[in-house]
UniProtKB/TrEMBL annotation:
InterPro entries: Aldolase_TIM, DapA-like, Schiff_base-form_aldolases_CS. Transmembrane segments: none annotated. The keyword Magnesium does not apply. This is Dihydrodipicolinate synthase family protein. Coiled coil: none annotated. SMART domains: DHDPS (SM01130). The keyword Calcium does not apply. It comes from the Bacteria. PROSITE patterns: DHDPS_1 (PS00665). Keywords: Lyase, Schiff base.
Length: 295
């Protein structure tokens, strides 16, 4: 698990200007807030960050803004997944040149009938193409969104071939048996969960933490899943249950209400922004959960 992502990392939502460009100022302010709340790192341009809707230059410009804003490179893991492997390689090389080591890497996600052997070949082409011992790749399993599952046996094969370059897996399936399958197949690989309610039992079974979206809204509650999961799990499930409808637009609407930053309420096509009233309702209910937890 050398230099893998561990602890509480936030799958960053991406604030947007009215023009649709990334709002770098709002992004830096948000990451500073999350760092102050005890988050260990951030991953821009994953699923919560609408990563597949942003070009490589846009992603890199956002990373540069975070670095210029004082966020250490070791606390940033960039979503580098692209359908074309050469594009993913080029983006990763550019991120490494900025001082980053961590990359969250989707499998190529257009063809849904690929085989395990094909996925091994694809990730091998990516790792060989980057060709840099500084890389610490976290392979990304979110088949309900990407349409392409990551077989645990493929992770084991890649780890055996590439060692610490294959540092981790993010399991966002929401199926705890899948987490256990990754742990069994590749015990040297650091496995993070995306489902916040599973953090406690994942840690108990050898998991290393989370890369999750709800930490954008309730970082204190997610942190409590590390320190007192028996107490925090009920409120955590309640908070997750408030996000009804398309996850990213609804989450971002709530963020806009809670932060006062309209930039968080905007999304990129093909997503459609949630109504402002939805976000305000969630913000009010989260405030109620926080008061109850503090009582």
């Amino acid at each position: 698990m050398t230099n893998a992502i561990t602890g509480l990392w936030v799958a960053l939502a991406t604030p947007l200007e009215a023009t649709g460009a990334v709002d770098h100022g709002a992004l830096v302010r948000h990451v500073r807030f999350l760092t102050e709340r005890g988050c260990d790192g951030v991953v821009p341009f994953g699923t919560t960050g609408e990563g597949t809707s942003f070009s490589a230059p846009e992603r890199l410009a956002a990373v540069e803004a975070l670095l210029a804003g004082g966020i250490p490179a070791e606390r940033i893991g960039l979503g580098t997944g692209m359908p074309a492997i050469p594009d993913a390689v080029a983006l990763t090389k550019a991120a490494l040149s900025l001082g980053l080591a961590h990359a969250l890497v989707l499998p190529p996600y257009f063809y849904r009938d690929v085989t395990e052997a094909g996925l091994v070949d694809a990730f091998a082409a990516y790792l060989d193409g980057v060709g840099d011992d500084r890389l610490r790749a976290t392979l990304y399993h979110i088949p309900q969104t990407s349409g392409v599952a990551l077989p645990p046996a493929a992770v084991a094969t890649l780890r055996a071939r590439y060692g610490h370059l294959v540092a981790g897996v993010k399991d966002s399936s929401g199926d705890f048996k899948q987490f256990q399958a990754f742990r069994a197949a590749a015990p040297e690989v650091a496995v993070c969960v995306g489902n916040e309610a599973d953090i406690g039992r994942a840690l108990a079974e050898g998991g290393v933490g989370t890369i999750c979206g709800m930490a954008n809204l309730v970082p204190d509650l997610v942190r409590a899943m590390f320190t007192d999961p028996a107490t925090a799990e009920g409120p955590m499930r309640a908070a997750i249950g408030l996000i009804r409808g398309p996850f990213v637009p609804v989450l971002k609407s709530a963020m806009a209400a809670m932060t006062g930053e309209p930039a968080f309420g905007r999304v990129r096509a093909p997503l459609v922004a949630a109504e402002a009233g939805i976000g305000q309702r969630i913000a009010d209910e989260i405030a109620g959960l926080s008061r109850a937890a503090a009582a």
